[in-house]
Design brief:
With 446 residues, this protein is an alpha/beta fold. Helix 1 packs parallel to helix 8 and helix 7 runs antiparallel to helix 11.
């Protein structure tokens, strides 16, 4: 028997065709786990085709460091086709036009590709919340191109605003979630490194947040520690601020106030990339995420699975999991086990349900990174920075990424110590506050 896979490849034996649409943390984790199970279980009759509109995958937690020129693009990204040669999948570059789940076909540039099992991992994009934005000043930190643009702006910028009007800022970060807070902290350190800081009366960076506090999804203690860190670096932050529109360098706030900024970083939320589904009766949440069952499959559609930012799994306590890399990685690993056991090897008695395990997460803030443990135990200062660095190191995609990340981190550390800028004035007090808060939380936990 000859089985046609749909990309010019032919096999002389029946195969199970798995198409992975999108390749972020979830897709990478799935393919990596499937490769390992193939080695152990001898699953030779599996063909995995990855379809993505990007040639490379980006380790997004390191984008703030790319934006301030601490790391190179090669440290935080990997070529998908090269990964395929290692992990045993084929790669097709292209944007998916549509998916017919009943006929089990994916359309790419008008070309139909059949599949037996589909894994959707298309990720997310910026959520503009209906705000009108015009001009080229607005940048989001979602890929290496964005980070490179920010880095170039910092290097090419001259002295920052000489206008004494406090409404003028060199950089405005919109969104006080993890992405926005990380960006503001790293950018503030970079401004200090290149000697372009400003007085407290005219700060160079302002962070705007619509809710009542920054890092609103985190415990109150984490928000308080982060506020102290930002203040020590000269970052002004405002909460309960709504942005109405952005026109070039002008930012109109809901209060009627107008801010002027040379560079605007957009970090005000994301929306799931589900444009390719059309009207197929798929249940979605109010935010647009696809509702899946305990096995991450679309109810009523056989062999169609969803992982990553577009999935809306409900865990045991009835809460919907947040859109982050840790969730996507665990979903990818679970799905690989599930497909290998229940479908490819017929071990239906081994079918399990997805359970997210909170191993803690990091919030990299430059030299003042935080680690939030499973029981909201906060580790800050040098220990938090070391844990954040180690987690990023082990989670990078390839050994080449790890080597470059290690060398460039050592080089930056050496330059920082040699230049005497390891700690800026005021940052030590912020770290002292971090440690005090951390110790308080540890005592409460114990």
């Amino acid at each position: 028997m000859i089985s046609h896979i749909g990309s010019g490849h032919y096999f002389t034996h029946p195969v199970t065709r798995i198409v992975v649409v999108g390749f972020g943390f979830g897709g990478f984790s799935f393919c990596k786990k499937m490769r390992r199970r193939s080695w152990r279980k001898g699953m030779q009759d599996v063909d995995i085709l990855v379809i993505s509109d990007r040639r490379y995958i980006t380790f997004t937690p390191l984008l703030p460091e790319l934006a301030v020129s601490r790391l190179s693009v090669e440290s935080a990204s990997a070529d998908i086709e090269s990964l395929g040669k290692v992990l045993g999948f084929r790669f097709m570059l292209g944007r998916v036009d549509g998916i017919d789940m009943r006929a089990r076909k994916v359309s790419v540039k008008g070309r139909e590709i059949g599949y037996d099992i589909m894994v959707l991992s298309t990720g997310s994009s910026d959520n503009l919340h209906g705000i009108s934005i015009s001009g080229e000043n607005v940048i989001s930190l979602r890929n290496v191109e964005d980070a490179s643009v920010v880095a170039e702006k910092l290097l090419r910028s001259k002295t920052i605003w000489e206008n004494p009007d406090k409404s003028h800022y060199q950089i405005t970060v919109i969104g006080g979630g993890q992405t926005g807070v990380e960006a503001a902290s790293f950018l503030a350190e970079r401004l200090m490194e290149i000697g372009r800081t400003t007085s407290k009366d005219s700060p160079g960076i302002i962070l705007l947040e619509a809710s009542g506090r920054i890092l609103s999804r985190e415990p109150d203690e984490v928000s308080e520690i982060s506020q102290r860190i930002l203040r020590s670096k000269g970052v002004e932050y405002r909460t309960n601020i709504n942005v109405k529109n952005i026109d070039g360098s002008r930012i109109l706030l809901g209060s009627g106030e107008i801010l002027h900024s040379g560079t605007i970083i957009w970090a005000a939320g994301i929306r799931p990339n589900t444009w390719m589904f059309g009207t197929q009766g798929i249940l979605q949440t109010e935010g647009g995420r696809i509702v899946v069952n305990a096995r991450l499959e679309i109810p009523g559609i056989k062999n169609a699975y969803v992982i990553g930012d577009i999935a809306s799994p409900i865990v045991g306590d009835g809460k919907i999991l947040a859109e982050n890399a840790s969730v996507a990685v665990q979903e990818g690993k679970f799905l690989a086990r599930h497909i290998a056991n229940s479908i490819l090897q017929g071990k239906h008695n081994e079918v399990e349900v997805f359970r997210y395990r909170n191993f803690g997460h990091v919030i990299p803030l430059g030299q003042d990174s935080l680690f939030i443990g499973p029981k909201n135990r906060v580790l800050a200062g040098p220990l938090g920075r070391g844990i954040a660095w180690f987690i990023h190191f082990i989670e990078l995609f390839t050994n080449q990424n790890r080597v470059r990340f290690l060398l460039e981190s050592i080089l930056h550390r050496a330059k920082t110590v040699r230049s005497g800028k390891d700690r800026s004035p005021g940052r030590a007090s912020a770290c002292h506050g971090c440690q005090e808060s951390s110790q308080t939380m540890e005592r409460q936990t114990l």
